[in-house]
Amino acid sequence: MKFGVTWLLLLVLSVSSHAAIVNGVRVWPAPDNTRLVFDLDQPAEHTVLVLKNPFRVVLDVKGAQLKTDFSDLDLANTGISRIRSAVRNQNDLRIVLDMSSEMTPRSFALKPNDQYGDRLVLDLERSTLADLGLDSSPQVRQSVSKTLEAVNSLKRDVIVVIDAGHGGEDPGAIGPKKLREKNVVLAMAKELYDQLDALPGYKPIMTRTGDYIVALKKRSDFARQNNADLFISIHADAYRLPSAQGASVFALSNGGSVSAMAKYLADKENASDVIGGINGVSLEDKDDTLKSVLVDLSMTSTLQRSVEVGALVLAEIGRFTKLHGDRRSVGHANFVVLRAPDVPSILVESGFISNPREEANLGSAAYRKKMATAIKNGVVKYFEQTPPDGSYIAWAQQQKNTTKKYTVAKGDTLSGIAARNGVSVNRIIAVNNLSGTSIRIGQVLLIPGA
Fold this sequence. Notes:
The chain is an alpha/beta fold.
């Protein structure tokens, strides 16, 4: 009996003294930070310190061994020039990051979940975006003005923030053939960006332009910081039954009843911060200011506008692809990303990536372009119906209402016609889609109001 107890004690000591194995590492560069994620086979204590002259970030992992290679990592745009490792105190693992720019480290451990085992996360935060040669404005990606007229007359663009869901450590849903939601929706978001950017009077901005994670609340905050007229979050559904299919559009629930599927999808999307390793962010928004706004009439107005634009987008999507179930109206669910209290916000589920046929569609550039076009058409219809005050779109609609016709007579010049009507030559050219200033006798021109 004594021998058995001794053997058991030795076994316990052997298991407890087993060194943690670092068996993988991933690097996710973002505009304002770089994230390194180390995969472990068990939890391990760690410390982080900064050394200067030259600037280095040091990660010490207690009682750990390295079973992966750093040489294959792409360190472009990370602020890291080299990663090296060594054994410290004959037992610990030391990982040294040689930095090309000074960054502030922050680290934390993540427990296992459905997709990953134990992880150690090291975030390197930039003091300014200038470290990457990027603009220091809060706009990650913004368009240039499309019309000189709009700039000169200070007629503002309609700002549409486009949010590609998930990213970085959080792949989102994964299809039967391993297609990842984060990649699909980023490609779709970029297509929507390009289409809106080509329209006069629209300024699209993206919450992320690469493969990195953005906290859920930061996405809606980003829309508010940029004075967005509309926030669109793009996703792809997944469900345990592969037969589930169809696209849908959601607005924030105002506390009323929601369908079981809507709650299921919202719960999955709201888990993004946990999977992606956003440390210390609660999925339940406890912002007292927001809670007070939620019961305010302004929030009611925002929700109503969200439903209105969502209905137009949904109708356009339904023109070319199947909608989920009998959903011919905008769904409601408590998506964290839709909680901006004063920005109309919708979430587009572009299809079920868990359905083999729809996974193939989502992997197709042609399908993604059709989806982006449908979203764009719905957005344009909404703002044509309710143009924001002071916007180029509101001005353009006013011009349509005051436009008159003029037949070119002998001796007329475009500059003379413009001067007599108190408008610029450029405005007449724009309204009539002229290629230049040449006109002919008998030609009918549309003359916009002065």
